Amino acid sequence: MLVILVLLCAGLAQTSPGHSVLVGLGVTATPPSYTELSFTTPDGLQETIGAVQAPITVSFGIHNVSGSSKNYQWSAVAVHDGTNEGSVSGDVTVAAQGRTAVTDNIQATCPSGRDQVVVRLASPAESISFWVTCPAGSAPAKRAAGKKKAG
């Protein structure tokens, strides 16, 4: 009789209502819920930008490790010395335990040195980033063209 009772309880625990009862009793815990944000091809990130004003391709993945679908607001920003030099944003819904990939281009300005490309999720607040090198020798001409001499 005890064996039958144990088997019956084990079978009930495998169902959704049975799992809810066990969680309510504190016998089992709710599985963790989190989001993974990563680059889809980390070794294939764009390393250089070909011109002062050119697109920077960003490709990242979102993994929803939870029991329900979630909508994520994301943004990708090219930053140079603290200044936003271009951005793109959007939103995507990811199914429970699902993954999605996003690829987009930031129409960015890269005046000299390098830009940091930051990909952010609004909620949960997560971010990842990489650096792109600006074209050599193009910044002085661009900056000089915008200045006027007093005289």
CATH class of the largest domain: Mainly Beta
Residue-averaged pLDDT, rounded?
Answer: 84
Domains, number: 2
Structural class: alpha+beta
Summarize the structure.
By secondary structure, the chain is an alpha+beta fold. The chain has helices spanning 2-13, 16-25, 139-145; strands spanning 34-39, 53-65, 70-80, 83-94, 99-109, 114-121, 126-133. The model is unreliable at 139-151 (pLDDT under 50).
List the helices and strands and how they pair.
Layout: H1 2-13, H2 16-25, E1 34-39, E2 53-65, E3 70-80, E4 83-94, E5 99-109, E6 114-121, E7 126-133, H3 139-145
Helix pairs in contact: 1-2
Question: How would you portray this structure in words?
Answer:
With 151 residues, the chain is of the alpha+beta class. The protein has 2 domains: 1-30, no CATH class; 34-135, Sandwich (Immunoglobulin-like), CATH 2.60.40.10. 19% of the residues lie in helices and 46% in strands. The chain contains 3 helices and 7 strands, in the order ααβββββββα. A 4-stranded antiparallel β-sheet has the order 4-3-6-7, with no helix packed on it. It has a 3-stranded antiparallel β-sheet with strand order 1-2-5, with no helix packed on it. Helix 1 packs across helix 2 (16-25). It is rod-shaped, with a radius of gyration of 25 Å. The termini are far apart.
Any descriptors?
single chain; 151 residues; alpha+beta; Immunoglobulin-like; 2 domains; four-stranded antiparallel sheet; three-stranded antiparallel sheet; 7 strands; disordered C terminus
